[in-house]
Design goal:
- The chain is an all-alpha fold.
- The protein folds into two domains: 1-53, Arc Repressor Mutant, subunit A; 68-244, Tetracycline Repressor, domain 2.
- It is 72% helix and 0% strand.
- The protein contains twelve helices and no strands.
- The longest helix is centred in the middle third of the chain and has 28 residues, at 125-152.
- It is elongated.
- The relative contact order is 0.11.
């Protein structure tokens, strides 16, 4: 039986307190307001105690990111169990970023920021390993669908294309478009249609370009999205999922 000591339990509880406090600081005042001093002051622990858990504020940011990504991985994993074609699963996996960004807006911003070299240079190797492992899990889910599509004949790679290259497309669209919409208040050069419509459209443009069948002209992927949203809502008891994904009930 795996048990933890009282001291280990206290350490876990204290670390959770620090992370919850950091999340609230970011939510209220932005990332720039997050410092080790602020965490110590709010929680009434010494700065030295905070440093026993985290090497710097970038370390805290990576920890928050990893915490939120667990929700994203859970969503994506559930979507692989959807009884559909590899392309259907790929689309709903990609659209999981919408749910993640809505429910964990601060962590989503940190997910984007965690790719920044400045943060990666300062965060501890242990925290980076956790965030990197999360990335690997997500990309592997996408790669699995690409391999499945190739195996069943829905997709044929050109001689100069690789699975990794194809994996980058849906991942970049999901992460990149969602990040742009998060910052749309600062972008005045373009009119933003509903995020759900844009992401759905761009994913289909990309996958049709790969000649990944069934093409969007041959199949109703809106129905796929509605069915997946209903299944996920039942699994999680969260019936706001359909609204987030822009599904008409």
């Amino acid at each position: 039986m795996n048990t933890i000591t009282r001291k280990q339990r206290e350490l876990q509880q204290r670390e959770k307190l620090f992370l919850d406090t950091a999340r609230q600081v970011i939510r209220d005042n932005g990332v720039s307001a997050l410092t080790m001093e602020v965490i110590a002051e709010i929680t009434e622990y010494s700065k030295g105690t905070v440093y026993k858990h985290f090497t710097c504020k970038e370390d805290i940011m990576c920890a928050l990111c990893a915490e939120g990504v667990e929700y994203l991985i859970s969503l994506c994993s559930q979507m692989t169990e959807f009884p559909g074609s590899p392309r259907e699963k790929s689309i709903i996996i990609a659209l999981s970023y919408l749910l993640y960004a809505e429910r964990y807006p601060e962590e989503f911003d940190l997910l984007v920021a965690s790719k920044n070299a400045n943060i990666r240079q300062k965060a501890s190797p242990e925290r980076l390993a956790v965030t990197d492992e999360a990335d690997q899990k997500i990309t592997q889910l996408i790669k699995d669908q690409i391999h499945a599509a190739i195996q069943c004949g829905d997709l044929t790679l050109t001689p100069d294309a690789t699975v990794d290259q194809l994996c980058l497309g849906p991942w970049a669209i999901s992460l990149g478009i969602t990040a742009l919409y998060e910052a749309q208040d600062m972008i005045s050069s373009i009119e933003f249609p509903p995020l759900q419509d844009t992401l759905y459209q761009q994913l289909n443009f990309l996958l049709d370009g790969y000649q990944w069948r069934p093409l969007s002209t041959e199949f109703d992927y809106k129905k796929t999205l509605a069915d997946a949203a209903l299944q996920l809502a039942k699994n999680t008891d969260d019936f706001s999922i359909s609204d987030t994904l822009g599904v008409q009930e």
